[in-house]
Amino acid sequence: MPILCTTLPACLPATETRPDSAAESGRSHYVRHEDAPSPLEPQRSRYVLWTWQEGGKPERFEPLLRYFEHLGRSCSLERQRRIAAMVGLLWDFGLAHARSGSAESIWTAFPEALVGGTEHLEGSLAELRWPPASPRSVHARLAVLDGFLRWLADTTGSRPTAVQWLDRAVAARRAAHRAKHAAVPFSTASAVAHERGRAFSASRRRPATEADAVAFDESKIEELLTVGFRRRGARPEDGDLGLNLRDVLYTILLHGGGLRSCEPLHIFTDDVGVDPTDPDCAEVRLYHPEVGRAPAKAQGSRRGRGAVQREEFLREWYRRAPRTLAAPGQRAGWKNLRLDRPAEGYSAVRWFPKEWGRVFLRLFNLYRAERPDDKGRHPFLFVSEHGPERGMPYTLQSYRQAHALAVRRIGLTVAKALGTTPHAHRHAYGRRLAAAGAPRGAVQVALHHVSPESQGVYTQPSLQQVADDLTAAEQRGVLRGNGAVLKKLGRGST
């Protein structure tokens, strides 16, 4: 087994440098998002794993590319990145494990190294410098890697030289799976980590409670928007609204449209239009950040070759990645949404009540006029307004800070349990729908939930509402049948 390379630059040829855009990197691998055409998709880009051994040049890990081709469009870029990162870690560990001369099976040592870290180990394994991780996290990461190893085990034909060292482990994995008839990662030792992860998840799992689902106080939303987000030094007599329109629009999307706090960061300026059924109301489309259809201006260049998707549009027009794949500061999350138009990859924002859409359109037109110039660097709607980042995409951390400041300005305390964090607006939206008697199916679509069960935490009544409903039921005489018994007990009669 080749000796583990100790430094990255020594492994790279003189004509090649380590990419600044590497999504993940290790001692003998890095992961990079780049063009990876295939016969069926000549314009396709993927996450590519580059590996090397001592004295060798970095080479594409071809089995992983074939695995991504096998998965097709069902494998998102974010999932590709996670799989490639885990295979890269396994590559590094395999080289270090062989160099250490350990008699312990790699499939016993690898999960334990992920959970406990490697700093306490000896020799080349300690040089990996992996920090400890929770069993729950490790279980999820092993499951990602297990899918690739299952596919590799079932693939026939000769193995590339680069993965010959995996062959014995893959064969052991297949034999263990057939013996146990259970979908557990790799081996018995890994199954222990799997069970630990399940136990960890179960210990933390609990029913949704009032503390989990406190909604933003509806009576405070007007004050939050008009006072909390008011610009410092703004004077009403100047005829200006004096509001930070960016943060007001952002909050309206959460409170009046029910979006999650990270979702507005994916909206392009072209995604906002006029509702064809109401010219005074905004229509906002929430596209999948990677596979959603790109704006119309990008489609003309692909005649006869299918629709341009957002990942390709951002890469070719702006040399940017979707925000699900951006650097940590610019990254924005994305949950699996129910799409109204799967072919185009978007869901529409459902305003409730619809007046929120009318307010949004009026303020959007004002914001577009005063929005800092992005200088053609990106298509995103919300941008930073000050400092060196002026005109660059807004960040979730900046919005959270602005929201917290606005909450304090109107005399409230920032706390999840008090319903004063950004996500509390989504809870307010869900409860508003439930209070209005909206059918479960309508609530599911409005909240963009794939499963109808997901809406429960958003539509459950508050504790005060439950108390008020019980009092009202008593006053309506629902408990009339027990009246004589209650009176008798109240008088202390026997």
Automatic annotation (TrEMBL):
Keyword annotations of the record: DNA recombination
BP GO annotations: DNA integration; DNA recombination
Highest taxon in the source lineage: Bacteria
Gene3D superfamilies referenced in this protein's UniProt entry, alphabetically: Intergrase catalytic core
UniProt-listed SUPFAM superfamilies: DNA breaking-rejoining enzymes
PROSITE patterns to which the protein is assigned, alphabetical: TYR_RECOMBINASE
Sequence ranges assigned to domain Tyr recombinase in this UniProt record: 211-471
GO molecular function: DNA binding
Pfam families: Phage_integrase
Segments of this protein annotated with the region Disordered: 15-39
InterPro entries associated with the record: DNA_brk_join_enz, Integrase-like_cat_sf, Integrase_catalytic
Protein name in the entry: Phage integrase family protein
